[in-house]
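Lab meeting, item 3. Inverse folding demo.
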């Protein structure tokens, strides 16, 4: 009887020691995983904050736009950094949780070799079956990292005949656009082969002004240059127009008119408003200077000062 009792106590002690050891092992794995996740998120935040502050500093140093444009650009840098930080944090958390789960299963005495082999086979199968999703995901990552476009930008996706609209959301797989008619377009990032961004850097306002064949073209050119320069110095429009010299010259000559083209560099997305106002001012200035418009001049050819 004493021998049986001793054997039973030994079995109970062995079982208790194993249970305690497994619990301690699981707790250790959990603590290490939480610490690793905290450290990874901290590193990601510091990296993205450093990247954002550096990018903002370079932008402010070389920016020539208005305060509003500068604020929008800085907000775009911060939004891009936040998206990248969220992506890196999620990927790191997934890896840490996966490794911790494998160690936990190993601590419970489960052979993880078949699981690793099954996971490898499943990964290959999923990789073949989800190539489009992986392509969309990677394309979204590089779009965000390379700052190809951001929320609020006016872009054309698909080249000539593609979709043009304002970006409402940029995800890792889907980009959402709203065109001029209000239609919302959902475009997978992997399908974006050609992209035109109208909201980065500067834009060009192009205005064609027709004058009569009997007009003094040199005088008309001077009037239009003075009009563009005066608009640049106007407090209402100076924040929307770049300080570059306007380009004015004869664009075409037809049987009915001589077309003079004005090219004026503007802040991005402001070219249409600037062009509309410049047309009004150009017509008024030519009329005040006595430069004839088509249909009001004689049949004489264009007059050009030597």
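The presenter then showed the designed sequence:
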């Amino acid at each position: 009887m004493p021998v049986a009792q001793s054997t039973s106590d030994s079995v109970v002690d062995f079982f208790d020691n194993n249970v305690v050891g497994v619990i301690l092992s699981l707790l250790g794995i959990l603590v290490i995983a939480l610490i690793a996740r905290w450290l990874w998120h901290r590193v990601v935040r510091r990296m993205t904050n450093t990247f954002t502050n550096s990018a903002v500093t370079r932008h402010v140093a070389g920016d020539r736009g208005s305060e509003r444009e500068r604020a929008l650009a800085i907000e775009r840098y911060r939004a891009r950094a936040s998206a990248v930080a969220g992506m890196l944090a999620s990927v790191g958390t997934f890896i840490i949780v996966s490794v911790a789960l494998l160690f936990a299963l190993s601590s419970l005495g489960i052979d993880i070799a078949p699981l690793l082999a099954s996971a490898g086979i499943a990964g290959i199968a999923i990789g073949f079956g989800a190539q489009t999703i992986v392509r969309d995901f990677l394309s979204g990552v590089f779009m965000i990292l390379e700052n190809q476009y951001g929320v609020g930008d006016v872009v054309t996706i698909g080249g000539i005949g593609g979709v043009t609209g304002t970006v409402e959301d940029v995800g890792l797989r889907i980009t959402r656009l709203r065109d001029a008619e209000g239609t919302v377009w959902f475009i997978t990032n992997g399908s974006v082969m050609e992209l035109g961004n109208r909201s980065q850097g500067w834009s060009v306002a192009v205005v064609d002004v027709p004058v009569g064949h009997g007009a003094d073209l040199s005088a008309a050119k001077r009037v239009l240059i003075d009009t563009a320069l005066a608009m640049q110095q106007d407090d209402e429009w100076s924040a929307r127009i770049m300080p570059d010299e306007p380009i004015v010259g004869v664009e075409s000559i037809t049987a009915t008119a001589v077309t003079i083209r004005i090219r004026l560099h503007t802040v991005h997305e402001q070219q249409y408003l600037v062009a509309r106002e410049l047309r009004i001012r150009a017509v008024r200035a030519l009329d005040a200077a006595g430069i004839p418009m088509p249909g009001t001049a004689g049949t004489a050819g264009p007059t050009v000062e030597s």
